[in-house]
Amino acid sequence: MNPGEFRHPTNILIKGEAQQSDYGDFKQTTTTGIERFAKVKWLPGSEVLNNDTITLERNIEFTYRAENFTEALDRTDTITYKSIVFYISSIRYIGQNNEQYIVVKAHSNTQ
User: Fold this and answer.
1) With contact defined as beta carbons under 8 Å apart, do 59 and 101 qualify?
2) Span 3-17+25-110 CATH architecture
3) Whose CA is closest to 107, among 91, 87, 85?
4) 16 CB contacts (<8 Å, ≥6 apart)?
5) What number of helices (H) and strands (E) belong to the chain?
C-alpha cells in the first residue's frame, strides 16, 4: 500500500468495560478517543428493515496500520468518519505475522 492512501482522518472510540463485583455484569467504564488516518473504501450499501422502517445501511472498509491501540479494538467500538458514526462489523489482521494492517468493516444506518 502507498503511504498516500492513509489520508482520511477518523476518530475511533474504544470502550472500556469492567465486571461488577456484586452481580458479575459488565458495565462500560471509560471511552478513549483515538484519531488516526485510514485508507477508506466504500462498499455497496443495502436496505435493512429496522422497527418497521426501511433504512439505508452504508458499508465502509477502513484500513489502519498496526499499532498498540488496534489490539484493544473490538466490535463494540465505533469509528467516526465525516461526522458519521460507523459500527464495527468485523476486524481482520493482514500482513506479515498479522502485524502490518488492520482491515475494519463497518456500517452506519440512516433513515
Assistant:
1) no
2) Beta Barrel (2.40)
3) 87
4) 28, 29, 30, 31, 32
5) 0, 6
Helix (H) or strand (E) holding 79: strand 78-81
In contact, 107 and 60? CB cutoff 8 Å: yes
The conformation of residue 72, written as its DSSP 8-state character, comes to: G
Q: What is the pLDDT of residues 31-88, one digit of tens each?
A: 888 999 999 999 998 888 878 888 888 999 999 998 887 788 888 899 999 999 999 9
Compute the distance between CA of residue 54 and CA of residue 110 in angstroms, rounded to an integer: 9
Model pTM score? 0.83
* Domain range summary for the chain, segments of one domain joined by +: 3-17+25-110
Task: Give the cell for residue 80.
Answer: 467516526
